[in-house]
Specification:
By secondary structure, this protein is α/β, with parallel strands linked by helices. It has 2 domains: 152 residues, Response regulator (Rossmann fold, 3-Layer(aba) Sandwich), CATH 3.40.50; 167 residues, Alpha-Beta Barrel (TIM Barrel). Strand 1, helix 1 and strand 2 form a beta-alpha-beta unit.
């Protein structure tokens, strides 16, 4: 069975990079002996001619698209176009947006056949087996589909307990030369799960609150493999890389033991960093840490359930600077309780 996975476009201002989800899904499907290709519509100019040529050459049995809310309109438009051009192919959609709008998506977009909800590796593996054997999809957990005009939602799939059971993501599915030319960092996940419940984020609903950590040696295997492909920088894309400091130290120590020389970037909370941790990260090559600071007004932070303070944010930024790591703050304007005054406070806070 041939499976075409599509990375839809999104604004370049959002830092273009190969989809971690598609790299992981592609590796799982190839492990199953499936023929898999990725049509990358992000690193090249979007055109239906390009889609047509790919469909005519590859002739996929299943077409899968992933998206977040930001690029959902273009993603679903692309999938429906593919369905019109190859009506015999099964059109599958996954990602955070459709995970929480599965029934609405199936109702409003007839070109979408199946929604994969939540983590997709095991669900897609079972889904492809069921489609190949002509079996009922009701036995596949984590999918939504139509039957006799009605939406069927199977039971939620438990989170994958052992991330080390997954094969290493397959970066070679993407046109790497384009991303290397743009000096895009290699995205690496060392864990899944976020313990926080910030009002604006669905992260914990996609991956759970409990931390599931990969073997540090396995994480560094992936970093080394990316280096061998030509990547010079790595972004640890965990929602909260610094939640378990022993995990961070183990990864850094393994990087140092192997003598890998790559710039590292990661995401952290302001209350999860300290001087020893930052020094170890800096020694291992960390050059920048992104903090979700969100607002310069404490009331807005509290309404967003950030469980963080402005003083902690200032302290974390200062600690990073002292360690030789560039702190990067991300902010959201328009959170509950926002006013013109609080937005001005945020702008002033961001300027330091």
């Amino acid at each position: 069975m041939k499976i075409l996975l599509i990375q839809p476009p999104y604004p370049f201002s959002e830092f273009p990079k190969p989809s971690s989800a598609l790299m992981s899904l592609g590796a799982v499907l190839k492990q199953e002996g499936r023929e898999v290709e990725v049509l990358d519509l992000l690193s090249t100019r979007y055109s239906t001619d390009k889609i047509d040529r790919c469909l005519a050459r590859f002739r996929p049995d299943v077409i899968g698209v992933t998206s977040v809310t930001m690029n959902f309109p273009r993603a679903v438009q692309t999938l429906q176009y593919c369905k019109r051009r190859t009506p015999e192919a099964v059109a599958v959609m996954g990602g955070p947006h459709v995970t929480f709008t599965a029934e609405e998506t199936l109702r409003n977009f007839p070109g979408v056949d199946i929604i994969v909800r939540g983590e997709g590796e095991e669900t897609l593996r079972e889904l492809i087996r069921a489609l190949e054997r002509g079996e009922s999809l009701e036995g596949v957990r984590g999918v939504s589909f139509r039957r006799n005009g009605e939406t069927v939602k199977t039971g939620d799939r438990p989170f994958l307990p052992d991330l080390d059971a997954l094969p290493l993501p397959d970066r070679t599915l993407f046109p790497l030369s384009r991303y290397l030319a743009m000096r895009v960092p290699a995205s690496v996940l060392s864990s899944r799960g976020c313990p926080m419940d910030c009002s604006f984020c669905v992260g914990y609903r996609m991956t759970g609150r409990q931390g599931r950590f990969r073997n540090p040696s396995r994480v560094v295997d992936e970093i080394e493999a990316a280096a061998n492909l030509g990547f010079e920088e790595v972004c640890i894309d965990d929602d909260l890389f610094t939640r378990k400091q022993s995990h961070v130290f183990a990864i850094c120590d393994e990087i140092l033991r192997r003598g890998l020389k790559m710039n590292l970037y990661c995401f952290a909370r302001v209350d999860t960093v300290n001087e020893p941790l930052l020094k170890k990260l800096r020694d291992a090559g960390c050059r920048m840490i992104c903090f979700g600071l969100e607002s310069g007004n404490q009331k807005v932070l509290d309404l967003a359930r950030k469980r963080a303070t402005l003083d902690k944010a200032r302290q974390a930024v200062d600690l990073c600077k002292e360690a030789g790591i560039s702190p990067l703050g991300s902010f959201i304007l328009g959170l509950p309780g926002e006013t013109r005054q609080t937005m001005e406070e945020t702008i002033s806070f961001a300027r330091g």
